[in-house]
Amino acid sequence: MSNIHDGLDPHMQGPSLEEANRLKILAGVLALVVGPFGIHKFVLGCTGAGLVMLLASILSLGLLAGPMAIIAMIEGIIYLTRSDRMFLESYVLQKRSWF
Predict the structure, then answer these.
(1) Domain span at residue 89?
(2) What is the DSSP string of 84-99?
(3) CA–CA separation, 3 and 95 (whole Å)
(4) Rounded to the nearest 10 degrees, how much is the dihedral formed by the CA atoms of 1, 4, 85, 79?
């Protein structure tokens, strides 16, 4: 029986909270360190969003790297400050691409 308060079906296949925590830390650090290239998006399985960030940074010859860095910094902070459960639900299971 599913617990209404946690929002997750215990019979659902997917990563554990421990795996989500490792993914959260990896994605958050990548967003802060190499954010304009969208590597953190690829790690989370959001290839479309990752390509947008990567191509915007490269094809603009760096002109859009600044805005991409700001977006990535915000996302990195959001990832690292979310609880493991919220991160798992939003970014791993629902594949939320932006913020």
Answers:
(1) 25-93
(2) HHHHIIIIIIS-----
(3) 22
(4) 140
